[in-house]
Amino acid sequence: MRSRYSAFVRGDSAYLRDTWHPGTRPDVLDVDDGTRWQGLEILSAEGGSGDRRGRVEFRARWRDGAKSGVLHERSRFVFQSGRWWYLDGVVD
After folding, report:
1. Among residues 44, 37, 26, which one has the least CA distance to residue 60?
2. CA 74, CA 11: separation in Å to the nearest integer?
3. How far apart are the first and last CA of the chain?
4. Which of 1, 16, 33, 64 is the most exposed, fewest CB within 10 Å of its CB?
5. Assigned CATH topology for domain 2-25+36-91
6. What is the β-pairing status of strands 67-80 and 53-64?
7. How far apart are CA 83 and CA 81, in angstroms?
8. For residue range 38-82, what is the model confidence (pLDDT) as tens digits?
């Protein structure tokens, strides 16, 4: 999760695409250049070493010009082919 957040901060859409599960990733992934990510807070994490599925709940603060806010998401991950993949997330 932290590496995906860092990719959003850097605007690295190639990394985000490479970490998104091929079965759920969108055909086009646009990263908004105007959004400035200002911090990540992991609220909870389930799964990890030895597990096949995981969940991460987080808040990420952002700013876009005069607007600012918080993205609150519950993300799902799956461990396949020796690595973790982002499946999807529910945004509150």
Report:
1. 37
2. 21
3. 17
4. 33
5. Nuclear Transport Factor 2; Chain: A, (3.10.450)
6. antiparallel
7. 6
8. 999 999 999 988 899 999 999 999 999 999 999 999 999 999 999
Global pTM reads: 0.91
Q: What is the pLDDT of residue 48?
A: 82
Q: What is the CA radius of gyration of the chain?
A: 13
Which residues make Cβ contacts (< 8 Å) with residue 28, sequence separation at least 6?
A: none
State which H helix or E strand residue 82 sits in.
Answer: none
- Single-letter amino acid code for the residue at 56: V
- 82 beta partners: none
Q: Which two tokens stand for residue 61?
A: 């603060």
The reported pLDDT for the residue numbered 88 is 97
